[in-house]
Amino acid sequence: MGIEVVVEGLTKSFGSQTVWQDVTLTLPPGEVSVMLGPSGTGKTVFLKSVIGLLKPERGRVMVNGVDMVNSPERDVYEARKLFGLMFQDGALFGSMSLFDNIAFPLREHTKKKESEIRRVVMERMDMVGLLGAEGKLPGEISGGMRKRAGLARALVLDPQIILCDEPDSGLDPVRTAYISQLLIDLNAQLDATMLIVTHNIDIASTVPDNMGMLFRRRLVAFGPREVLLTSQEPVVAQFLGGHRAGPIGMSEEKDEATMALEERHGVTGSSSVPRTIEPQLEPTPGLPVRQAVLRRRERVLGLLDTLPPAARHAIESSFDRTGHVVAGQAAPAGRAGGGPS
Ligand SMILES: Nc1ncnc2c1ncn2[C@@H]1O[C@H](COP(=O)(O)OP(=O)(O)OP(=O)(O)O)[C@@H](O)[C@H]1O
């Protein structure tokens, strides 16, 4: 099962520019979480801080007992081996075949024999639908294939935490739908903790168990997907609805005067009609059941009383709909937090 990631009071600046401050959240083990936010709000900086590639000035990121911010570099280096990182552009070596690109971490970080490396690489290429493309160079394949190759490379060291930076960037809506399904399928197969950074609303509404959003140098919210999907917080409603009206402007944020002017001119966006929540994607038939869904059900039931009414209602009806849990009925005490046997 994936590992929990606990982020506490994290603050990151570059010179006098604060990217975000006091970010606190927990990525539950084995669950899929998405971090949303308009361009430039620091999503990539957050991902790099979680894996210890950037050092926030304050706060900590606890992974398996190691603080990725403040522990000695050798401990951070070791803990980083628990992660798989899929970069936005795939970050493949242009002169190496896909096979060699994907084999690279195994050759660098393990003493595995070539026959074993071949087995692992082929297995991961199969998982991301790239079998047959082993000999291709990155320049000879589509952007979507490069992303999948980057994902396969992130998987070869059997990560327990997978970080994906904008897996949809540059992809058409159909390829984005495929990558969404792939992320859910990988979660079903690996049961790894996943954090996906994106501003794609389709991914946000169908893939994650949990969602968060960065805006105006702070974490607006983080919690079960239903909390953001039912939120009436202007910035969340504007972002998920994809409107112009609201606090998000062309260059990140609008001032009060601009918002008042828009209102006078009838630029509307947020509506009081509740958004319909799309069902979360299920793994492709034939793949294992996502263990995270079973664990999450118990975790979220324990949180219900602390959630806003709209989120609570959405969670209860989703549990009803799938027939997994009758609303309001607590899960058997012995299994709480421990996951299925
Ligand atoms: N190494 C760096 N040095 C200085 N500033 C940086 C550095 N990396 C990022 N920034 C700044 O931090 C801010 C957040 O950048 P980041 O790339 O994390 O945003 P983002 O939310 O991922 O944006 P996008 O959705 O457009 O990819 C930006 O203002 C960026 O210029």
From TrEMBL:
* GO MF annotation: an example: ATP binding
Q: Could you tell me the keywords of this UniProt record?
A: ATP-binding, Nucleotide-binding, Transport
SMART domains assigned to the protein according to its UniProt record, in alphabetical order: AAA
Q: Specify the domain of life of the species encoding this protein.
A: Bacteria
Q: Which residues form the ABC transporter domain?
A: 5-241
This chain's protein is named ABC transporter ATP-binding protein
Species of origin reads Streptomyces fildesensis
